[in-house]
Amino acid sequence: MPEIYNLNVTVKGLTPNYPVVHCTAADGICLMVTGLHVINAGITMLAMGLSELFDLRKSYVMVAGIAGGNPEHTSTGSVTFARYAVQGDMQFELASVPPNWPSTSGYFPLGTKGPNKYPGSILGTEVYEVSEALRHRAATVAKRAKRKFNDTDVSREWRAKYTQLAARQPPGVQECDTLTTNTYWNGAGIAEPMGRYLKALTNGTGVYCSTESEDSGWLAGLFRAFVLGRADFTRTIIMRSITNYDRAPPGVSDYDNIFSAQQDVTYYVGLQNLYLAGREVVNDIVNNWHTFEKGIPTKNYVGDIFNTFDKPNIDIGLVADNIDTWEGFDEGAIDYIDKLADPTRNGHGLTIEDNEAEGGKQVPRVDAAQLYLLGQEDSLKGKHTQLVAESLNRMLAQAGELGLRDIPEQMSMLRFADPKCIQVEGFRNDEPDMVVVHHQEGGQLSLRAVLKMKTWWTGCELGALNANPNKTDLGRWLGQLAWYMNQGNCKYGAFSNHRETIFVKRSGQTQFSVSPTYVAYPADTNHRPALREAYLYWLSIIATDHHFDEKLARPDMLIAVGHGSSDPTTPQSSPGRRPVGKPSPLGGNRPGSSGRGGGATGGVNEQALLKRLAKMELGEDIVGINGHESPPISNGVDASQLDADLETCKLVDIDGTCIGWFTKDVKIKKRVFKGTFIRASNGEKITSIMKVFPPEDDPSFDDGRTTLFDTELWASTRMNGSQYTPPLITSGRSRGGYTTPGGDVVIKGICPGIRVQDDVWDSLTPATEGHPILDALKAAIQAFRDQNLVLWDLTREDVLWDESTQKLTIVDLESADSLTRVPGATDRFEIRELIPAFWK
């Protein structure tokens, strides 16, 4: 591209080695070289952003650089586009580690005393997030160059040495994330902990696939220019080609891997493919400036880890003035929750009878809309106050009239157990510092009406809000919940602590109704899961005729279910569908958005869908249900085989790419199936049609197979009198135990806060045939071995599997600063995220 040198502009403050910016004369394409490593890149980018010679306010800034690659996710010669850039070396590092150190390197996060934890100290440049919509568009157009990508025999031979499937693939284009360090490191012993660090800082949503030395720096410089109004951070693209692997293949040392002659070849292959892919992206911007000029709309948070530019569009004062009693709160739901308070109820399981209101009727269904459940894991006290709707109404109404200092309500102090990752930015606009203290038997708290909660990392679309102050109160959380409900156009919400829940219904733009407080478990019961478990049970029953594709990554905090709508009281579909499993860990949907752009969810015309399914023929497309514009869905099997498939299929893999519906009735070949779950993979072909209840016209259809409810909120229930299994595991059950087709293990999100009696865990031996927790964890252990994975604890409790005794042990991290591994223990699993690697 020789025309790039038509204009050559010297800019003060650029790296001395590359002080000139080169530009074309006609279309405003410029090339700037940042120089190597974080400091050069950061100062150079900031100098460029502040220069009076350039105006970056409508400019698209794309890095085009090389990187090392993670063989688990990419291959040499490939071009990657990142959503997150994580600075990996802002950590402690030990040259030698203590005994039983749970990591393969001496790195561990600042503000902690060991590895695999969320940092206790956050400085602000740890994570930058760019527009996912722009990233996806750039990656899509870059794929046009794939057929021209360079490759060599030497590159292919080097890739063949690796055992990972991704590493052996020819050059391609991937959407995955990058990690910045000043140190040029190599080896699995460092790479794997670095990958876990990236995963933690992105709330489990990032996918580590490239490592480089500049991205955190130039993004910091550009973001500072953005803060000063000199650039637009939403127009940022991170493009890196893979020129080597971050670890050696089998039989090669890490030292030899760095200096191998093959890397000289893969280096040039990566550079050539970087240019080919980048040219497609630049041409797309230039040729479609009518689209790009106004910016590519994005729904994910964009910015730094401090959530600097996520401003709400709601005045919490209006919320406080419009809280009233939720009249007619569903009696069926109340009856259901009351059943959970029964101390004689056995274990975690609920039978189908527990899910029916008085008179045999199913509890009322919540209409499809986004729902948030905001909860806590532990409390300072064992028992919390019960706050009725009238007192809450009076308290918040007075907050609008008299000021917060004048509210004499009694409440209790709450405490969260997770890492300290929260800052409160502001309160009432007119009274930013108003605080009132309530007293109650040795405890007190500060009540604040929150304008917004400023989180270091969240994942609202994923179903997570890592908000963990040491002291908080009900009023603050209800204000936060109301703000998130408004932001996501949500109709229903709930706040849950260890034992109690308050349900919230949105009745207008800034009007919210609050239910009485419900207690799920009495203080003297030994059954002590957090109330969110009870509420998720309830939700799984009342909302099973809708599709829920939100993941539950950190179930102790904010849980997002379903999709929003532009009308908070009337769910509806919206055009387009964003891929499942593409969450926003830094603030959820943008203000004014309609949830996740949910496509069919909540707006599916069920009757139209059923009619189409009843007439399915081989290869026929199901297009435009209720007018939405999601991809066409085709049945992948001949309609004549559907009956047989229903009788023989097992639970297909439940992962983030699946799309499905839970319908009341499906009629196929004049046969009506009640409660049928239809799943499609990648939005293209129906891969399974699962029966949950036996058809009324076919009582013989009884194979004991059950679809379990899981923490992704896939609707499920029991079949043929078998016990309803709680959201501790996710798996399909056949006669042989908890399995899935092809041996794939599907276990996601064992809920934290589960306190199981010692005698229960002591009974978990191979003799306990068919015990779901044992079966699931044993399957998980095997999956970890197959994948060569070891995940260490990030929460308060740990599960240890002792290979020699085939027994499970729970370790309480509260009582020990460090853990000593059980003799013979080969694997240790984090309760909350057993297999996050399967969440792709």
From TrEMBL:
Transmembrane regions listed in the UniProt entry: none
GO molecular function: catalytic activity
Biased composition (Polar residues): 566-575
Ranges annotated as biased composition (Low complexity): 583-593
GO BP annotation list: nucleoside metabolic process; transmembrane transport
Record region (Disordered): 560-603
GO CC aspect terms: endoplasmic reticulum
Pfam families: NUP
InterPro entries associated with the record: Nucleoside_phosphorylase_sf, Pur_nuclsid_perm
Protein name: Purine nucleoside permease
Organism expressing this protein natively: Drechslerella dactyloides (Nematode-trapping fungus)
